[in-house]
Amino acid sequence: MTAPPSDGESPPTGRTRLRRHPERGVYDQATVHAILDEGLVAHVGILSDQGPVVLPMAYARVASTLYLHGAAGNALLRAAEDAPVCATVTLLDGLVLARSAFHHSLNYRSVVVYGTGRRVGDEDEHRLALAAIVDHVAAGRSAEARPPSASELRSTRVLALDLAEASAKTRSGPPVDDEADATWPAWSGTIPLTLVRGTPVEA
Ligand SMILES: Cc1cc2nc3c(=O)[nH]c(=O)nc-3n(C[C@H](O)[C@H](O)[C@H](O)COP(=O)(O)OP(=O)(O)OC[C@H]3O[C@@H](n4cnc5c(N)ncnc54)[C@H](O)[C@@H]3O)c2cc1C
What we know:
Blueprint: E1 25-26, H1 29-38, E2 42-48, E3 51-57, E4 60-62, E5 65-71, H2 75-80, E6 84-97, E7 105-116, E8 118-119, H3 123-137, H4 141-144, H5 150-154, E9 156-162, E10 165-171, E11 189-192
Antiparallel strand pairs: 1-10, 2-3, 2-6, 4-5, 5-9, 6-7, 6-11, 7-10, 8-9
């Protein structure tokens, strides 16, 4: 069964339509955006001259654009310019321990985005993207921190990725054990996982 359509649904494309567990697929922008806004790390994949490369990166979402940044010479961001990019963000919500080894799983909310990298050259958008990335880590922080200097801007590359082609996949709830395993003497259930901010340590 496929998840029912909801407001703001973007129809899945040939490559974003979930084939495995399609009932876990969500394509509405609100869900995709909420997962991206809660996550902190994107795994960004490109096809380099030496084969596929996937690197973890900070990011921020502004409206329907995902911004990535790095050093001006960042190899992945350079290769991603005007080239196919796939970025994923995963929120891990729990460990799912079933009675059988086979049915062990994870509870999660994840997003996969496909697009073409666009290098941000415009200074206003460059500053906006960098501020958004700082604010994504700590809300309101860009207004407190010293803004980037002209030379810091020059030494930073920003890549934009449109969020038009994205899918979300979510799993929640208990393990799905086979009836035949109901009396197997192993504990079964979920262990929730959360990422929490600790007590700040002043520098
Ligand atoms: C934390 C975590 C751990 C996982 N561990 C495993 C594992 O060990 N083994 C395993 O087989 N699977 C695992 N999955 C699920 C995995 O991400 C795939 O969904 C699954 O493997 C199906 O792959 P497929 O190539 O058949 O996907 P298909 O259903 O053919 O994928 C088609 C399209 O659906 C979308 N899609 C697929 N998966 C996701 C996703 N997770 N999030 C958002 N969009 C998606 C993409 O746009 C993709 O191009 C895990 C997922 C998460 C979040």
